[in-house]
Each structure stands twice: as C-alpha cells, then as structure tokens.
Specification:
The protein is of the alpha/beta class. It is built from 14 helices and 21 strands.
Amino acid sequence: MTDTATPASAPARPAGDPPTFRHFIAGAWCDSSSGATFESVNPADTRDVIGRFQQGTAADVAMAVRAADTAGGLWRRAPAPKRGEILYRFGALMAEHKERLARAMTREMGKVIAEARGDVQEGIDIAFLMAGEGRRMFGDTTPSELPDKWAMSIRQPIGIAGIITPWNFPMAIPCWKMMPALVAGNTVVFKPSSDTPHCATLLVELMDEAGFPAGTVNLVTGGGAEVGDAIVDNPDVAVISFTGSSSTGKRIAVRAGGKLKRVSLELGGKNAIAVMADADLDLATDGILWSAFGTTGQRCTAASRVVVERAVVEPLLERLEGRARRLRLGSGLDELVDVGPLINAGAVDKVNGYVGIGRGEAELILGGEPARGGELANGHFFAPTIFRDVAPMDRIAQEEIFGPVLSVIAVEDYAAAATAVNQTRYGLSSSIFTRDANTAFRAMRDFETGIVYVNAGTTGAETHLPFGGWKETGNGHREAGHAALDTFTEWKSIYVDFSGRLQRAQIDNQE
C-alpha cells in the first residue's frame, strides 16, 4: 500500500507540486476524457491544496458502467460467503490504516480528528457487518399450502448500483452504501462529493488491495451535473443510492422515476432534542452541545432545535451558553480543538444568511459571526451560535441550516414538546431527556422520526440498526443493518413441486 504522499492513483510529480489523482475504472487508474481537473483544499487552511482530481464526464461514466456490466456476470455468481471474505479483508485494511485515513479525512473535510476516527470506524463496522451477511442474507422458507411442495424466497442482486455520496461522512457513508451493494452481488459506479474526492480515492485504493475483481468497483470524480446526472440517466444503472440535500434528492427521484429505477434517498433533517423539567440538565447539556456543534453542525442528524419545558429554560441556557463559549475552534488535526471549519465558503455564506434571518426572529445570545483572524484567517470557520425565544414555526426552526446554529424553543409541557418536535417537514432523528419512564415511552411512540434517543443526543447511530427517516428526510429506504440489503436486492419466490402431478395452488386447495 502506498502512502498518501504518492498514492497509486497519482503519477510522479515535482517536489511541492500537489498530486494529481485519477479515476478508477475496470481495475485501472485513468485520466478523464475531458483532460480537466479540479482542486480539493483543506477547509481549515485553503492554502493547503490536497490534490487535483479528474473532472469527470458522461463518457467517463459510460466507460465505468461498461466495466461494471462486464464484471457483473462473474461477481453475481461468486458465492456470497466468498464476496463477504473480500469485504472482511477490506475492513481489516481500513482498521490497519485507520489513523492515516482519519488524518487525511480531517485535512480534506475538516471534522476534528476524534470524529474522523469515528467516521473510519463506521466504515470498518459496516464492512465487517456486511461481510457476515454474505453467510446469512436471509430469505424465508415457508410451508406450502399443497402437499409435496416446497416454498421459499431468496435475494438476488439488481445489477449496477450508482453510489452518490456527500462530503460530511466521506468514508462512512460510501461504505454504508457500497458494502451491502457488493456483498449482495451488485457492481458499483461511485461518485463522491467534489469536496472530498481524496477520501474516496483512499477508500478505493484499499478496496483494490482487498481483492475486489476489476470492474466491480469504479470511481468517477467530478461535478453533479456532469457525473451525477450521467449515472442517474444511464439506462444500465439499475439502482441509485444518494445522500445529500432534499432538493437534489427530489430532482434525482424525478429523473430516475421515468426509467423506474430503484432509488434510495437519505436527505435532510431538522432534528430536535426535547428537555423535560425533570431531566438531568448537565447530561442534557452534554448531549445538546455534542449534537449541535459536533462536526460543526454538518450532520444530517445534528440537533438544530432544543425544545425545553419553560420551567428549566433559564438553567439550561446558562449551562449551554457557558459551555459553548469555551469551545475551541481550529484545525481538527489539533487534538485540543472542539469545532472544526465549515466545508467551504458557500457554507459560511449560507449559515451567515440564516443567522441574519434569526436576528429578526429571535434573540441571539451567542456567536452569530464567521470566526476570522489569527490561525483561523485562511479557513471557513463560524462561531457556535445559539438563539433563544425561537418560535416553532420560525424559519431558523424549520429550514435546514447545516451549520453550528442552535434554536431554543420554550414549551409548557410534554404535549407541546411533542408537537414542536414533529412540526417540521423532516423526520430523521430526535431525542428526549427525562427521568420519567412513562414520558420516555410516550416519546418513543409519539416522535415522528426514524431514530429516537432517550437521554442521549441526536447523533450516534450504530451500524447494525436501520438508519433513515420519515417525511422529507428520505423515500422510505434504510441504510445500515440487514435492512440495507433491501435497497440492493430483488426478491425471488421459488416453488418446487415434487408431487409428480400438476397442482394449481388455490384452485386445487378449496377444501
């Protein structure tokens, strides 16, 4: 395995010149047909150019799809346990290179190093989990209603999977998608975010080293309009798995719907933490700060709303404001830093715009400005921001900001809290802090989200349970857990009649 300074995907270069990375198609690293490249930079210090990456085209996608199609026949016929063994080798390689991968991720994406290690660990976990599914991949064996007849169902691969991933979990999310697709016998065309192509390249290098046959995994970097749309539109790509904004997800659903493609969408969130009057406020503060400002608020599961019983608003705000003021901003490679940069200048502008909206809706008690100067001068930093006296239907309480902005909403009781938690078009993650078991179980029943936490923040999903949300958070599919196989498999029902005569099911089974 080469080191990050001279990866297999990069040619030799003069000292000091950023490396140029390539697509990975049909088991080989290759340049784009466009001849054009784009740069990826460190969001904590934009003077640090990580590398140049291929500006992909529809022709590049077509070549990747042909490679995936050619490889698909043999890959789908390989025994699933053997496919799983390759996934296991990949997971073991990720574990071996965990620190190197985490540091590369922090440099390119910006999340603090402890979180980057967790991101890599999620990739390891899902690789091992899905490797095991290669020996399970359960169907059903059921009794037939007729004598001397066997009935069962099995899963089979769909074909070529188009994998389109975001920048905020640049290793975990690609693994969440590719591991179930591959163990089920599909082949993959993978387009990462243009903000994190280096992370994707490092993953694919390890996949190649793990022994995935040529053409089973293909990487094409570049923009959504050129590469993403070409993957969605290609008639030979049978299933699309996308994580990103709701607006882009809806557009993908429309484009793919005309071809009746299988589409799995994991989209936005506007997640809430409910804090009841009987809660442990110190524990709630820990959960809120981690959920709101971890990954600089750039998680689909981030807590951007706190719905708190009025009786404890002031002591909770005192804790939140005091603790948040002490959060340290900077490069995530510094182990003492709590909050890293936003991903790019556009994200800073978006967050700043929503803070301006918030100033007209509620009371700003902390932050509210980009953080500039000193060691932060060349990065995309924004101060942790808290608004109080936010109304449930204010824009900052309804629209996904995707940054370190927290809205605190006061309510009278549990019933009002549940209403406020659910009063959004999203439904990914929610949380409640309470010491009362009855209240906790009501929240588990009442909160309209795909994930509910009790006495914990809104982040921290584990790979062996389904991940996904309700309403505009997605289209009903789930990632992680054995449910992830549903996106990438078709069900086949099989009947074996060994009676030696024609049996016509219900026609012959009326008595």
